[in-house]
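Subject: design request, 209 residues
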């Protein structure tokens, strides 16, 4: 059986031009993880706004926050992978920084981990502030993916996931260059468990995808 709390929780978030919401993201994540030993790994994916300086200032003031600056914009999946490679926690959560993934769900995900789940994926019950186009294309994507891929990816589960170290190490051992992390976290096996949540609208700014 596992402990109720990880020894060290790593939270990994990629950010690209998010100066309006970085501080709020860090504040909410640190508050949500107040009961845990926390390492917050933020990957600056080649931001060209005030994000890099803001992140350096936050990291200088809070020893839990670590910042990785990429040399240019590599895209969400590559940035997230870089963060996962640097995370040292025995439990690692991956989350978007725009607060569409509520950090307050992390304790529920950890509760599932302490019950034995190795991969805990958040499943969106409702998506606020998304366009009809985004909802339709997302729905087509999950249907097509289900037909083509030999991976049972839960519809409406994104990259908001929490992994035990053994699942993360298996994921990081995969040498795929074009990485689809949510699918890969399922493919590695182990015990998989869902946690439902409501997907909020973006806290600020616009979609970078
Ligand atoms: N992001 C990134 N690099 C990119 C695009 C996005 O690091 O090239 C980050 C972005 O700052 C956010 C997360 O990835 O924290 C998800 O991006 P976004 O919210 O734009 O995607 P959506 O929710 O619209 O799918
Ligand atoms: Mg978003």
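Subject: RE: design request

Done. Sequence follows.
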């Amino acid at each position: 059986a596992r402990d109720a709390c990880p020894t060290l929780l790593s939270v990994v978030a990629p950010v690209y031009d998010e100066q309006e919401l970085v501080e709020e993201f860090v504040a909410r994540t640190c508050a949500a993880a107040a009961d845990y030993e926390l390492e917050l790994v933020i990957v600056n994916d080649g931001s060209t706004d005030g994000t890099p300086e803001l992140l350096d200032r936050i990291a200088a003031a809070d020893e839990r926050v670590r910042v990785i600056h990429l040399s240019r914009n590599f895209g969400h999946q590559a940035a997230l992978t870089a963060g996962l490679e640097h995370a040292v926690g025995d439990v690692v959560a991956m989350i978007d920084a725009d607060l569409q993934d509520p950090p307050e769900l992390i304790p529920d995900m950890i509760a599932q981990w302490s019950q034995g789940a190795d991969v805990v994926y958040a499943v969106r019950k409702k998506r606020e502030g998304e366009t009809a186009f985004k909802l339709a294309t997302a729905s087509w994507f999950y249907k097509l993916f289900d037909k083509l891929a030999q991976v049972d990816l839960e519809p409406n589960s994104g990259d908001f996931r929490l992994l035990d170290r053994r699942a993360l190490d298996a994921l990081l051992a995969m040498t795929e260059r074009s990485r689809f992390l949510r699918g890969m976290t399922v493919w590695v096996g182990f015990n998989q468990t869902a946690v439902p949540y409501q997907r909020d609208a973006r806290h600020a700014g616009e979609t970078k995808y």
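Residues 96, 98, 100, 202, 207 surround magnesium ion (ligand 2) (CB under 6 Å).
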